[in-house]
Amino acid sequence: MNTRFIRSLLWLFLCIQSIFFILAWTTFEPAAGPLVVKMTATGVDTAAKMAMTPGQRALCALIALPALLTLGYGLWRLDRLLLNFRRQDLFTSQSIGHLRMFAGATLLATILSIIETPARALALWGGRKGNLEFTVGVNSEQLMLMLVCALFYLITRLMQEGRRLAEENESFI
Prior knowledge:
single chain; two-stranded antiparallel sheet; mainly alpha
């Protein structure tokens, strides 16, 4: 089974996510001729990002970092699963564990990204006088991703049960 292409896409995706993360929390705006790329995090417009102090941007990046690191861990576990597939270790406990951890980490990263916006608002509010207002948004892509992660988790449970039954059948022969 050739998994090199998919593994390459995984790592390319993580590199692009990391670049987006850096651009979202720095004032660097890459330009190519008349084209200027302005990246911001969800819920932050360009003017608000530029108005933040470097300390505030660093704090916001620190709040957003767990979601990126969790996603990176999940992608690393998916990479390990693909390496197992290359070795034809399809239904081993290790492969099942990699798929389960990928699904769990991706689900957790999605939840952390949803929580990030209100956590950022709370951190920037800092107890100042007045009401704290923030919004929590969940889009259909996030909901679909959570559903797919739950489905993968269910599939790992089925794989585990299939493995147990196969081992049980082998003991009868």
